[in-house]
Amino acid sequence: MSFVKTKGFKYFKNLMIGVGAAFVLAGALFKLESWEGASEMLILGMGIEIFIFLMLGVLGPEADYYWDKLYPGLADYHSRIQPLTAGPQNNVDMGTPLHGDVIERQLGGMLTELQSMSKSMGALKALQEVDFSGTQEQVKTMSNFYSKLNEAMADMAKSADDVKAYKDQMGALNKNLGSLNTVYGNMLAAMSNIGRQ
Questions:
Q1: Domain-by-domain residue ranges, the chain?
Q2: pTM
Q3: Higher pLDDT, 25 or 59
Q4: Each residue's pLDDT tens digit, 165-179
Q5: Rounded CA separation 86/34 (Å)
Q6: Are 97 and 119 in contact, with CB atoms under 8 Å apart?
Q7: What is the pLDDT of residue 27?
Q8: How far apart are CA 157 and CA 10, in angstroms?
Q9: Is the predicted pLDDT of residue 96 greater than 70, yes or no?
């Protein structure tokens, strides 16, 4: 079965599929136009297609992996790539050694990236599940709270101005009372002096 995996056989298989389909379409065109040889072309094209479908049914589908992008040379059935467990080996097709620890580091890096992406996706899912239906009401309430707070701060500023004016007036009153006490004390002293005479 190694012949089936060669590039030549794959090319032949694709060629047969294309030629068979072309004969079937040409036979159908000849039939529609009632041209001579239509039956023979249809029989030939259908025969090729029957052979191809039987061959594809017997061989089965091939796995469609893209490992050759990571490890060039894997697509060739006859390449001399050693198993990764065999340790460092020189790859004839690539010309560079395959090291198990290098591959393990690369796969470990990919695993770390996948885990990071999984955490990010989990966070996005959690954000998706958050209920934002009451957010508009909350924003309105907060806006109302801030406007009331601003009004209260303005009232406090006015009150502070009033308190300062009251304090200034009390200071002036104390000063006047001090002056009055001095005048009253002088009057009492003068009256007591008058009474002695």
A1: 1-62, 149-197
A2: 0.32
A3: 25
A4: 888 888 888 888 888
A5: 66
A6: no
A7: 86
A8: 89
A9: no
Pair of tokens at residue 38? 């239509």
- Within 8 A by CB and 6+ apart from 175, the residues are none
More confident residue, 105 or 119: 119
As a whole number of Å, the CA-based R_g of the chain is: 50
Q: What is the Cα–Cα distance from 23 to 47, expressed in whole angstroms? A: 10
pLDDT at residue 160 tops 70: yes
d(CA 115, CA 109): 10
Residue in the block written with tokens 């209920």:
131
Tokens of 191: 């009256």
3-state secondary structure the chain: CHHHHCHHHHHHHHHHHHHHHHHHHHHHHHHHHCCCCHHHHHHHHHHHHHHHHHHHHHHCCCCCCCHHHHCCCCCCCCCCCCCHHHCCEECCCCCCEECHHHHHHHHHHHHHHHHHHHHHHHHHHHHHHCCCCCHHHHHHHHHHHHHHHHHHHHHHHHHHHHHHHHHHHHHHHHHHHHHHHHHHHHHHHHHHHHHHC
Say if CB 38 and CB 46 are below 8 A apart. no
Residue type, 92: V
Q: How many CA atoms lie within 13 A of 175 on its CB side?
A: 6
